[in-house]
Design a protein that fits this description.
The chain is α/β, with parallel strands linked by helices. It has eight helices and seven strands; from the N terminus they run E-H-E-H-E-H-E-H-E-H-E-H-H-H-E. Strand 1, helix 1 and strand 2 form a beta-alpha-beta unit. The protein starts with 63 loop residues before the first strand and ends in a 7-residue tail after the last strand. Bound molecules: NADP nicotinamide-adenine-dinucleotide phosphate. NADP nicotinamide-adenine-dinucleotide phosphate (NAP) binds next to helix 1.
C-alpha cells in the first residue's frame, strides 16, 4: 500500500507530496539517513521552541518496558525517556539501523533492540518471548508504532484502510494481550500505554482510517482498563498534538497547513518528541497507581479550546 505517514491534517490531502517508502510504512535501509534526523523543511509559522522538558529520573528503576516504534520520532523519545527514568527498554520497529541509533543515544546496555514487523499481530506472543529473552520479565509496554494514509474518504483504498487498522489498532491490542498473559503466568500485572492522537477525540478530514484506528485505540484502552483492573493491570492512552516527525514532515512543509496547526495551539509552540516522555513515564510508574482507562492529551492545550 502507499501509506502516507503524517498525522491528520485539516486542510485536505489533495496535492500532498509523495512520501518516500522508508517513511511510508516500509523499512528503510539501515544505511539511509534516519527520518528522525532534521531534514530541510519549508519554514512554517510555528517554530519549535528550544524547551526540553527535564528528564524524569529514577521513577522506573528496576523495570523493563517494551516500546514499539522506538526507531525514530515520538517512539524514540519515549524509549529514551523511559530508559532515562531507570528502566531497561526493549526497542521495537522494523528498521534495525534506526533502533541501533536509539540504543546509542541511551546509557550503554539500557536499550535492547528487537527488529519486528508489527503488521503480523498473530506473532505477538513470539515478540513478547523474544523481548523477555533479551531483557527479562516485562513490566510495561508503550505502543508508539503507527502509520498514516491520507485520502478523501470516498476514494480511500481498501488496502490502506486494512494496513492502518492492523498496525495502529490490532497490533497494540494483541501485543498488550500477549504481555498481559505473560505477566499473569508469573502472577503479575503491568502498565500499558497506548498512543492516540487528536483524532482519538475530534474529526479531521482525509484520514478516515487513521481516525478509526486512533478512536479505536481509546476504546480498547477503556475496555482493557475495566476488564483488567482487578488484576492490577493499568491501561492508559497518551495523545500527542502535532509534532514534527517523519509522520508529519510533509504537513509542516506546507505553509498553509502549518499555519492552521499553529493557530490552534494555545501554548503557542509546537510539541517536540521529548514532550511526550513525561506523561509516558508517569503512566508507567507507581506515581499513577490509581489511574487507569484515561486519556492524557499532550497537545499544548489544543483540545481545551
Ligand atoms: N507526529 C505527530 O504529530 C503525531 C501526532 C499524534 C499521534 N502520533 C502517533 O505517535 C506515534 C509515533 O508517530 P511518529 O510521529 O513518531 O511517527 P514516525 O516518526 O513515522 O515513527 C513511527 C515508528 O513506528 C514504526 N513502525 C511503523 N510501522 C511498523 C511496523 N509495521 N512494525 C514495526 N514498527 C513499525 C517505525 O519504524 P519502521 O518504519 O522502521 O518499522 C517508526 O519507528 C504513532 O502512533 C502516531 O500515530 C504522532
Amino acid at each position: 500500500m502507499t501509506a502516507v505517514p503524517h498525522d491528520p491534517g485539516p486542510q485536505g490531502g489533495r496535492g500532498t507530496p509523495a512520501v518516500p517508502a522508508a517513511m511510508a510504512g516500509a523499512p528503510a535501509s539501515p544505511a539511509s539517513p534516519s527520518p528522525a534526523s532534521p531534514s530541510p523543511v519549508t519554514p512554517s509559522p510555528v517554530t519549535p521552541s528550544p524547551v526540553t522538558p527535564a528528564p524524569v529520573t529514577g521513577a522506573l528503576a528496576g523495570r523493563t518496558v517494551l516500546v514499539t516504534g522506538a526507531g525514530r520520532g515520538l517512539g524514540r523519545a519515549m524509549a529514551l525517556g523511559v530508559a532515562g527514568a531507570g528502566a531497561t527498554v526493549v526497542a521495537v520497529a522494523r528498521t534495525a539501523g534506526e533502533l541501533a541509533e536509539t540504543a546509542a543515544l541511551a546509557d550503554p546496555g539500557r536499550v535492547h533492540v528487537l527488529p519486528w514487523d508489527l503488521a503480523a499481530p498473530d506473532t505477538a506472543d513470539d515478540l513478547v518471548a523474544g523481548a523477555q529473552r533479551l531483557a527479562g520479565p516485562l513490566h510495561g509496554v508503550v505502543h508508539a508504532a503507527g502509520i498514516q494514509h491520507r485520502a478523501p474518504a470516498a476514494d480511500f483504498p481498501a488496502d490502506a484502510w486494512q494496513r492502518i487498522l492492523t498496525v495502529n489498532l490490532s497490533a497494540p491490542f494483541f501485543l498488550s494481550t500477549a504481555v498481559h498473559r505473560a505477566q499473569a503466568a508469573r502472577g503479575e500485572s503491568g502498565s500499558h500505554v497506548f498512543i492516540g492522537s487528536l483524532a482519538s477525540s475530534i474529526g479531521l478530514r482525509d484520514v478516515a482510517a487513521y481516525a478509526a484506528s486512533k478512536a479505536g485505540v481509546l476504546g480498547v484502552v477503556r475496555a482493557l482498563a475495566v476488564e483488567w483492573a482487578a488484576s492490577g493491570a493499568r491501561v492508559n492512552c497518551v495523545a500527542p498534538g502535532y509534532i514534527r516527525t517523519a509522520l508529519t514532515e510533509d504537513l509542516f512543509a506546507d505553509a498553509e497547513r502549518a499555519a492552521w496547526v499553529a493557530g490552534r495551539i494555545p501554548m503557542g509552540r509546537l510539541g517536540e518528541p521529548a514532550d511526550l516522555a513525561g506523561a509516558v513515564v508517569f503512566l508507567l510508574a507507581e506515581a499513577s497507581a490509581y489511574i487507569t482507562g484515561q486519556l492524557i492529551n499532550v497537545d499544548g492545550g489544543w483540545l481545551a479550546g
